[in-house]
Amino acid sequence: TVAVLLASVGMSWSADFKRGWNAYRSGDFATALEEFLPLAQIGHDLARYNLGVMYREGKGVGIDDKAAVKWWSLAALNGFAPAQANLGLMYDKGEGVTKDSHYALFLFQSSAEQGDLLGQYNLGLLYAAGGDIDRDTIRGLMWLKIAAGRGHQQASQAKAILEPTVMS
What we know:
Blueprint: H1 2-25, H2 29-41, H3 45-57, H4 65-77, H5 81-93, H6 101-113, H7 117-129, H8 137-149, H9 153-167
Helix pairs in contact: 1-2, 2-3, 3-4, 4-5, 5-6, 6-7, 7-8, 7-9, 8-9
């Protein structure tokens, strides 16, 4: 009976998430919020991620960077790479949180190592820029090349600018 219960909970998660995702895609953010919120509260990381996006962009809710950080933090703690990448941006820019480039680096690294394209791109940029962390143009170029090779246009542009300075 436990397996049947778990299977039915999983199916419910899936059906509710799909209903929320379809509503989100059609611009019905009130329904998306209604579907995502209970899932996020019980640990559904993709629902948490999507709530973060909704709060960051003000879709169906007021723009609220602290709420975005809250939802992305919960998903990031579970190793959800897209949430780690978005949360890294918030820490890198100091939006909704106190700026912390070292924590941003940690989040980008974790996300990038899982293959998240945004994490790879932003890790490359952070290493290339340095600033509050030690600049490492070789690592920066490496991550930008990885992201560019996967089709990230901005990474291709950044790589083209950085590469001649590293190679000279």
